[in-house]
Amino acid sequence: MNDSHEKKINRNLVYGWMTIVLILFVSYVMEVLKEQRTVTYLVVFMAFTTVPALVVLILYLRKPDFYYLRYAIVGGYFLMYIFVMITGSTTMVFSYILPMLSLLVLYHQPWLILVTGFGSFIVNIISVLLRYFRGELNNSNTKDVEIQLALLLLCFTGSYLATRLYDEIHRKNQEYTHQLAERGRDIERMTLQTITTIANTIDAKDEYTRGHSRRVSEYSATIAAELGLTEIEVSNIRFIGLLHDIGKIGIPDSVLNKPGKLTQEEYQVMKGHTTSGAEILKDIDMIPGLDIGARYHHERLDGKGYPDGLSGDDIPLIARIIAVADAYDAMSSNRVYRRHLPKDRILTELKNGRGSQWDEKCTDIMIRLIEEDRLPKINPDADNEAIQQTATILSRVIDLAEDRGGEAPEDLDELTGTYGRDRGKIAIQHKIERNGTGCLLIFDIDHFHKINDVEGFMVGDIYLKTMVDQIRLLSDNQVISRFGADEFVVYMPDAEDAHAAEAIAQHFLEKVHTLAESDQRVNKLSVSIGITEVATEKDRVMVLYENANKALYVSKQRGGNTFYCHQPINTFADDPSDHAADLKHLVGVIRNREHYKGGLIAAYPEFGKMYEFITSLAQRNQMKVQITLFTLVQNPGVKASLEEQNRVLDLLQKAIVDSIRNVDVITRYSNTQLAILLMNLNEKEVKTVINRIMTEFLRTYDKNEFTVHYDSADLSK
Fold first, then answer.
1. What is the CATH number of the domain that holds 696?
2. In a 3-state reduction of DSSP, which class is residue 669?
3. Shared domain check, 426 and 507
4. Which label site among 310, 418, 631, 673 has the fewest CB atoms less than 10 Å from its CB?
């Protein structure tokens, strides 16, 4: 029974008793006026009735929801009952009143009904005996007494039986209510766990915002509690805070994780997370205001926010609370474009934005919480076990959806039963994000076009199926995708590093060689393999594919039927042949691209556009074209951050732009490489340009974390 219900029962009982006392007082006053009672009797009666009633009233006023107040009411009423029974002549009336009041007060405690009934019966017996000894009873007038005792016994027996029945119903109702409450708490926990998992998924798009949604949720709930909102409202705001950034799930990673300043177009894309988030949440009515928090948490009090430019009180309170919490977490956390701000700087920013950017009351509370160090301490690695279990369950569901749902006919290659290119990229990326390590391998049949041309496509299909069957035997925990006619990309999480992948590739080639010797249908089967290592769960599948493709190019150049591993460029274990392989691969790619209508500035990987423009210009003017590939290499013993790597690459790019001519072209080749095309320069002039670039770079970069390597080739040959 909850407090509000207990308070209501106590109020009704106290008021009911006061009403009875008042009625009796008026009745006895009338009897005193009629000289049927004495004033002394009235005073004694009021002492027996009013004093207990006042005591109970005081107890009620001090604690209205006090459960045991009902026993004080019964005890006080019983005193009044005893007095009336002994001194009065209205015993029959009170024989009815007391059991009814007892039933009302003690309706689910049968043993108290028995105690009260037994006491009442004893009092009535004493009253009868007193009347008998006074000579008031004889054989002719005992009928009333017999009826009185019979009714008294009947009333209490009936009350006892009714209370036993109701007590059983009450207990079952309590159990059912408890089960419902527990089920409600389970649903709330599951809801919180699911929402937290969704929030973690959103935050996982950017390692710098890990735990952001959860921190904003707890900060918002703390502010709401300080504002005096109800417990339910605080709980709702906690949920709303968890999902305020759900719209970011649709923002491209290239925009979300960009280390530099966003362009105007990119900023417009980023702002769209508010409206898309509201669109996702608009039909969920289990938690009021979910879409409001997502849509309006970037509005400003001065009307300069987005998406709707609301101002002042037009911005919902939920959004004003989350806006302050969101801003504080943004300032106090490391981001891809800057480190967290110191405490004094954060307080200054909050005070400067109070009343213009953020709500005054919410900002004042946030400032006070910071100064008093009362903000919740959130540890992103300390999620409770239930949340981790929910995340595990959801990930398994996702796994099944990917593994089974991906096996729909439209997603699989009809011949080999492997993923197609588009579905394969998604499956491999998900697998990488869950495992974080492993290797990516590209398997390519040597001289496959010749096999198709000479022996026919049906024989070529046998070669393909045979190779895929052998790949499947390598591991049970892998993803295979057909990227080209005879090119299969395989992600192997169990290959912990490049050495393990090389051992797997060596074993595979030995099996293929044995199979080619024993099976005349595939006697020309020869396979080249390119390998690259997965460093972290943040690695992107197409970047890994490009690296493995460069390694595959080296394998092909070596005559095929072998493997080569592309070492990570940003490690100190640098192999010079890697850079040569990168340059050869780049030359091969841009020469074999389909025709593009190009422009002067090209962005990786659109090498074809760049090459098409340059070669057309060179052919018309009979000019020579040189290509140079610059590679950023991390020095031994250094572990620089991604932010620092991007900063150094930007310095190198600026040095190149400042050193080349308007007719030359620069493009990014990978996350650590830049390529330039130089027009109509001889070998000596190319070296002069490179020296100028390196001089300018070293002038602006004064640390010793990275070294720049470069290789050149003549595209005119």
1. 3.30.70.270
2. strand
3. yes
4. 310
